[in-house]
Amino acid sequence: MLNTSLSSNSIPKYFFNKLVDITPEDIFSMGAKAVGIDLDNTSFYDSTYKPFPGVYEWLSSMKKAGIPVIIVSNTYEFRANRISKKLGGLPYIGNANKPDTKCFFEAAKQCGVDVSEFAMVGDQLFTDIQGANNAGAISVRVKYMTREILMGIRFRLVRRRERLYLEDKGLGDKV
Known about the structure:
Blueprint: E1 14-16, H1 24-29, E2 34-37, H2 55-64, E3 69-72, H3 77-86, E4 92-93, H4 102-111, E5 118-122, H5 125-135, E6 138-142, H6 152-168
Parallel strand pairs: 1-6, 2-3, 2-5, 3-4, 5-6
């Protein structure tokens, strides 16, 4: 049995297959007024500067609906900045150190909302989701899209741990 004592707050409030499946109506129905997005395997191919198909259109739909979007990523500052520019100058927090909660409070503040009105979309249970839940934000998990390139062995272990955790919670179909 998987020891979940260190990650008991890692169950997402919402599940989606992909970032681009989330509509402005979904965001509003969650009670959110702003969205944070992770980069690797959520909106961009892992360790690249290439967004997943539909990301630009998704951002446009959020903008039209008046929903602020901010990048919240553990990636290094230089890369977060370059991707921010690529996405039209989105605000960003690089080196976010998720699951530390500080980045979620800062992201909500930059978007002009309370953290309880901030939806964090990410693919990793023990960084994106756990951190958002611990901060009191709305946690939204998307399935990871590709295998991680950098630190591949480490991430295979993380993905296995996530799978076991969700199965233990009766959510194995959400992997």
